[in-house]
Amino acid sequence: MLVGSPARIARSRAFSDAIAQLLPPERLHAFEQGTGVALAGVSEGLIAGFDLGQLYVFAPPPGAADLIVERFAANSVDSVRVEKPHPAIRRFSGMGGKDPHALVQIDGKLIAIAARDLTLGRVVEAFARKKLARSKPALRGAALSALAPPSAQAVATFFVPGPFEGEWAQGARGLLADAVALSISVAPVRERAGLFTIQVAGDLPPAARDELVAAYQDIASSSTGKLLGLDQPTSPPVVREREGRVELEIELDLGPLARGLRAAVIADVWEIMGLPPPQTP
Prior knowledge:
Strand order of the largest sheet: 4-5-6-7-3-2-1-8-9-10-12-11
Distance between the termini: 45 Å
Shape: globular
Number of helices: 9
Structural class: alpha+beta
Strand content: 25-35%
Helix content: 25-40%
Order of helices and strands: EHHHEEHEEEEHEEEHHEEHH
């Protein structure tokens, strides 16, 4: 689950410059035209992935809720079913391509979009109607509550609840096999850097602190780590051991990180090789 504030990211020069390499203005504009969502105006949002579907929840920019609903309907391949289970709640459902999708609008101040598994939208609705008073929200559940909350300066946090099995259990030199939760958050520091905080919580072995540092060094020294600039932190990593968890803080220049991600994900060969763009005939 990814929780963050696109608006705060947009206001940070370091992050906005880095994001522009991955999501140039024309792509953000196309996204806004297609969905009605201007990401720079979203104050808070989350993306959660589950085995059966995905959930997107966000506070829409002021006055944008109706346009987002309109775009949702336009992106549906059939007629959209509209329901009003509560005076402050409207529910829209239809088919988004081959899979069902649903949008829940709560008092014009919150929007939840569920893809594939429409139950996810119903869960948000039930929490809004206080029908799940005995159920704990995800961040207060048994796994993620073992983590310390991200700092007030954090603009995005990635949460992964355990237990970890299979390849995940081998992560961090096997440290995740004993973990119940993992999080990675990032906050702006100085002009062009980000402070990344990695937390691992659980019944960890005595050497957990050293293992986490070694695991980071393994990743940083790999070809992928070098591509992302993880091997060139702007200051040495800081490790803290708390009761039931271990934390690693590392400050990284966001420029090399963004350029590496671009090269790995969307860059053309001529761009990666530092060549001029080909001429259009």
